[in-house]
Design goal:
Layout lengths: L9 E2 L13 E7 L5 E7 L12 E5 L10 H9 L3 E5 L22 H15 L7 E6 L1 H11 L7 E5 L12 H13 L19 H4 L5 H13 L10 H14 L2 H5 L5 E6 L7 H10 L3 E6 L11 H18 L12 E2 L2
Parallel strand pairs: 4-5, 4-6, 6-7, 7-8, 8-9
Antiparallel strand pairs: 1-2, 2-3, 3-5, 9-10
Helix pairs in contact: 2-3, 3-7, 4-7
Length: about 350
């Protein structure tokens, strides 16, 4: 059997009133690294929108996020005539979890995630029309960038939303965090919550925990989570934190960044409290064909932001789409800070 293992039965897609799966989609299982059962979903646009799809958007969520959280933007891509392939990373959504406690946000190695991603593309390569546009948020954006640096050549363009290239560590220095990570991993605590903080997602509130300033979109996600508790992920483990730091440091090597020669736009939230925007701007300058766009006033989840802030992200997608799959129907891209 090839690396693109055969599909099993159709996978479920969960929805609630106001946040249902867009029409034209189907969930499917595929096999990731080590044989793990992972979930993906594939949509085709209505023939009324596009007689022939313009290409395929490959959508990668951030940490804790399942496919369901992205139903709205998937609908936006479909309305623009694009097929959409979205997926749950290992350890979240309805993909296989790595520990018996499903709420533990765990990871082992960057290589496993990159292998999973390559297998995803292999599995859908025959049905997903080209060109492919890679869209990734936070953790997904960092892993997308790493896959390009590793030589993934099937993608025509990339749009990364606040990629997780350097995690903010609050009042603790990165040096002290790395020291704590090494100590806990070496002493068999990789599967323990960081600082014993389970960060139960069912206790979250908009006022304390939202990563968007749009309360309506936040509440739709909360309704989805309560409708399907199996989607939930809590706080990170020491193993995940080791993985997250490693992923960012690997992606930031100047030679690796320069090797990415497809157009790559980083859309960065201006009020981000999860990743360092200065690092992402630095990275964009070193990409072979990089572009940096900062969305003033947006919190970490710019794709889930208020309509006016979210529109900047969609305009940047339109600009990327117009470049890799030209058409005269697209709106002009928002003004931005373009870098060499």
């Amino acid at each position: 059997m090839t690396r693109a293992a055969a599909f099993a039965a159709n996978a479920p897609l969960m929805g609630v009133p106001g946040a249902a799966s867009p029409p034209g989609g189907q969930g499917e299982w595929f096999r990731g690294a080590g044989g793990l059962r992972l979930r993906a979903a594939y949509w085709t646009p209505s023939a009324l929108v596009a007689a022939k799809p313009r290409g395929t958007v490959v959508l990668s969520p951030g940490r804790t996020e399942p496919i369901e959280k992205y139903f709205e933007v998937i609908g936006n891509f479909l309305a623009r005539g694009w097929c959409v392939l979205a997926h749950d990373w290992r350890g979240q959504g309805l993909s296989a979890r790595l520990l018996p406690d499903r709420l533990k946000g765990h990871a082992r190695a960057v290589e496993e995630f990159l292998d999973d991603y390559a297998r995803l593309l292999d599995a859908f390569e025959a049905k997903a029309p080209r060109p492919w546009v890679m869209v990734g948020h936070s953790m997904g954006g960092a892993l997308n960038l790493l896959s390009l640096e590793a030589g993934e050549s099937r993608v025509a363009g990339a749009l990364l939303s606040s990629p997780m290239l350097r995690i903010k560590t609050g009042k603790r220095s990165m040096w002290s965090v790395k020291l704590a990570v090494r100590w806990n991993v070496r002493h068999g605590k990789a599967g323990d919550f960081v600082l014993d903080d389970a960060d139960d997602p069912f206790d979250h509130t908009f006022e304390k925990d939202a990563l968007t300033s749009d309360e309506t979109r936040y509440e739709f996600w909360r309704q989805q989570l309560y409708a399907c508790p199996h989607l939930a992920v809590g706080g990170p483990t020491w193993g995940w934190l080791a993985f997250g730091i490693d992923a960012g440091e690997r992606a930031l090597k100047p030679k690796a960044l320069k090797s990415v020669q497809i157009p790559c736009t980083i859309v960065q939230s201006g009020d981000d409290d999860r990743v360092w925007k200065q690092t992402n701007r630095w990275a964009a300058k070193r990409l072979g064909r990089g572009r940096y766009v900062e969305v003033t006033g947006a919190r970490h989840e710019v794709i889930m932001e208020t309509d006016d802030l979210r529109a900047i992200f969609l305009n940047e997608f339109d600009a990327m789409a117009d470049y890799v799959s030209p058409t005269s129907d697209l709106a002009p891209a928002a003004q931005s800070d373009e870098v060499a």
